[in-house]
Amino acid sequence: MTQNDKQEFLKKAKDFMDSMPYKIEPYSSRNWGHPWHSLCSYHGKLKPAIAYFLIKYFTNKWDTVLDPLCWVWTIPFEACLQWRIWIGNDLSEMAYVISKAKLEKANIEDVNRIIWDIEKYISKNKDTKRIEDLINENKDFWFNWKLESYFHPDTFKEIITLRDYFLKKLIITPEDAVVYSSFLHILHWNRPYALSRCSHPLTPYAPKGEFEYKNVVEHIKDKINITYNKWEFTNYVHWKAIYWDFNDISWIDNSVDFIISSPPFAWSIKFYMQNRMRLRLCWWTPEDFKKADQKFLDSKQKKDFSIYKDFFFMCNRVLKENWKVILHLWKTNKYDMAEELSKYCLDYFDVVYSWTESVQEIEKHGIRDKWWVTEHQYLFLMKK
Question: Domain tally for the chain?
């Protein structure tokens, strides 16, 4: 890394943070961005406008951009829309399914064939002994409120049958992913299209109102029709979606130009708790929830931030010589993530710039911050 390279990166970082373009209309709108960013709601995802400008401002066309902790692929999705070669990785099954739906451009005719197959499967199997047993197995699953308390009994039966249909599949195709992501999105909310009684997009807030039967397949069809009416992919680059632990990324060694990522926020939400109902009706078992603290970074870092030594070792390994890392972080009243992570990157990276902005007076994703977050942070690193 030459001094000129470092100074140029520093100047761009300062210019970016001085202007904060994602806070200017229309980008400051909570709903700004490609409509497929909203294919399935997911608590904790990065605001699309931030991802858009990080890609636009710091990378060039055909650069290879890696997000090793990409949640529901917000950063890779923006990269692919801007003609970057994207690589996205996450360890969550739900995030991976949503990524396949967003990034692999499933054909609507093939999606409709999956829906037709599901419709037949539900009709044939919903009253079988197998589904009855699965309903009994799932209805008492809860975090303060039982799963069955959210749905009309006939809707719940169809939900469990649909879950059974996908659990039998060895391989999830992009078409499967679109259908399942659409299903997960409409699973519960306070909107008329939701399959549940009126409830918060976060569980375990109590559902309210009367039990109303809602046909699962018909509601999925409605969601998919709306989604495909917003199919706008003028520019689009296919590349790699990975479902691994970040430590296992090795085949891309020395091939990445930029790492742009938003690690889980310390002492903030646990993605697997805030998305608990969708995860349960995806693939997770009660045992998966018990083991999550030992598996996912957002819990591991609470015990010991030195886990990021492994993260930066990986970043150094996959990056080309003299290339860069940008991390979007949050500061809480317990931890300054930028300060903590700066300690563990120094074997491989120089800290070029760090920036914070207060978020105490704003709303994010329609929900006022309840997780002790006080500031957004940006950490700009350059490989030694």
Answer: 2
